[in-house]
């Protein structure tokens, strides 16, 4: 009887050890997989935006080619328009015919499949906004004597 109760006790302990061990291993596996998925999300590169800003003074408008050229230090930058391009002149919806040479242009553009810069949206104003002064350019405050 003593032998059978001892073997029963050892069998029970063995069963508890096996079941308890797999539960601990399963918990470890869950935390490891959660950590791995968090690491994968953290390492995932950010998606690049499909547009970028532009600004400058209009040098030429070609209604036939549907392009606007902006002045650069050397030469001109040619921006194309497509059917989705949105134009505003003095905050009013406009067409290419409303854009005047010498006006200040700013907005967003993207590159098409052939690599040409295409205007997504653009605003045209009479003149460029005033430049902000840097902290080093500001006049020092007067000191009281």
Overview of this protein structure:
Strands 3-2-1-6-7-4-5 form a 7-stranded mixed beta sheet, with no helix packed on it. It has 2 domains: 1-39; 52-125, Beta Barrel (OB fold (Dihydrolipoamide Acetyltransferase, E2P)). Helix content is 29%, strand content 30%. The radius of gyration is 35 Å and the shape is elongated. The protein has 145 residues and is an alpha+beta fold. The protein contains 1 helix and 7 strands.
Structural descriptors:
1 helix, seven-stranded mixed sheet, alpha+beta, 145 residues, 2 domains, OB fold (Dihydrolipoamide Acetyltransferase, E2P)
In brief, what are we looking at here?
This protein is 29% helix and 30% strand.
- Described by its quaternary structure, the protein is single chain
Using the coordinates above, name the CATH class of the largest domain. Mainly Beta
- The separation of the N and C termini measures 108 Å
Strand order of the largest sheet: 3-2-1-6-7-4-5
Low-confidence segments: none
- Give the C-alpha Rg: 35 Å
Question: What is the overall pLDDT average?
Answer: 79
Classified in CATH, the superfamily of the largest domain is Nucleic acid-binding proteins
Number of domains: 2
Q: Identify the overall geometry.
A: elongated
Q: Please give the count of helices.
A: 1
Alpha-beta classification: alpha+beta
Helix content: 25-40%
Largest sheet: 7 strands, mixed
- Please state the second-level CATH architecture of the largest domain: Beta Barrel
